[in-house]
Automatic annotation (TrEMBL):
Sequence ranges assigned to domain ABC transporter in this UniProt record: 18-254
Subcellular location: Cell membrane
GO cellular component: plasma membrane
Pfam family, one: ABC_tran
Main location: membrane
Membrane topology: Peripheral membrane protein
Top-level division of the source organism's lineage: Bacteria
SUPFAM superfamilies: P-loop containing nucleoside triphosphate hydrolases (SSF52540)
InterPro entries in UniProt: AAA+_ATPase (IPR003593), ABC_ATPase_HisP-typ (IPR030679), ABC_transporter-like_ATP-bd (IPR003439), ABC_transporter-like_CS (IPR017871), Ectoine_EhuA (IPR014343), MetN_ABC_transporter-like (IPR050086), P-loop_NTPase (IPR027417)
Protein name in the entry: L-cystine ABC transporter ATP-binding protein YecC
Signal peptide range: none
């Protein structure tokens, strides 16, 4: 048994947080996910890689309840997200936060208000308490001085930092990251990835990421799932997937993106 602190698993039994069982999704004639099953344990960082159109974003959007599966079940923390009635789905959905490619901030609200809005409306938190939490998070993402600014007054990197603070303000158990740097100018990418790497290392939040930033994936992931045509064709540690992939499709994909 290893005593290396970087490879020793956390104490206690692992707790499964996300479970997809036989999930299928079609858009018209296009079968995007085909009997997909996978699990993510609490506190783990899992990255989904694979060619464009292989269904990765659809998986995150289902967890956010922005899409629904045609068949199969999705559970979070042992509770059904699909199939489930609307009331249960709204409850389970509170455990999930997402950062989108295009930030999706509320343009007519200040930075502070962007971060406080959901805790007030969805969690019923008082404005004062939500503002206190939001200021702590804006400090964490390096934007304490910008709380009164509008999103349009910020750079893309700053807007994405606000979006990260906004997602964390709900204290989700699972944070979904969907290509969060692909809309940024190249010089702003590293700062956002460093922030997310810090959050991955210093918190116990579970992360499910879709990214083409393979160095970031290698740095933060406990597990990498390689998708092709709506199925996981290979899964393993980043060391294994990036250095010694089993599957020809994985080798081709990594050859094209690395
Ligand atoms: P990835 O994230 O791996 O690039 P996506 O999950 O975004 O893949 O998309 C998978 C497939 O589903 C693509 O062929 C895409 O065009 C299609 N798709 C995604 N969303 C919709 C939608 N709302 N309506 C129709 N087709 C969609």
């Amino acid at each position: 048994m290893s005593t290396d602190p970087t490879t020793t698993p956390p104490a206690g039994p692992s707790t499964e947080l996300v479970r997809f069982t036989d999930v299928s999704k079609r858009f018209g004639e296009n079968t995007v996910l085909d009997d997909l099953s996978f699990t993510v344990d609490a506190g783990r960082h899992v990255t989904l890689i694979g060619p464009s159109g292989s269904g990765k974003t659809t998986i995150l959007r289902m967890l956010m309840t922005l899409e629904r599966p045609d068949s199969g079940t999705i559970e979070v923390g042992g509770r059904r997200l699909f199939p489930a009635d609307e009331r249960q789905r709204r409850e389970v959905r509170k455990d999930i936060g997402m950062v989108f490619q295009q930030f999706n901030l509320f343009p007519n609200m200040s930075v502070l208000r962007n971060v406080t809005e959901a805790p007030v409306r969805v969690l019923g938190m008082s404005r004062d308490e939500a503002a206190e939490r939001a200021r702590g998070l804006l400090d964490l993402v390096g934007l304490a001085a910008k709380e009164d600014a509008r999103p349009s007054q910020l750079s893309g990197g700053q807007q994405q930092r606000v979006a990260i603070a906004r997602a964390l303000a709900m204290r989700p158990k699972v944070l979904l990251l969907d290509e969060v740097t692909s809309a940024l100018d190249p010089e702003l990418v590293a700062g956002v990835l460093d922030l997310l790497t810090d959050i991955a290392r210093t918190t116990d939040i579970t992360m499910v990421c879709v990214t083409h930033e393979m160095n970031f994936a290698r740095d933060i992931s406990d597990e990498v799932l390689m998708f092709d045509s709506g199925r996981v064709i290979e899964a393993g540690s980043p060391e294994k997937i990036f250095s010694d992939p089993e599957h020809e499709r994985t080798r081709e994909f990594l050859g094209a993106v690395l």
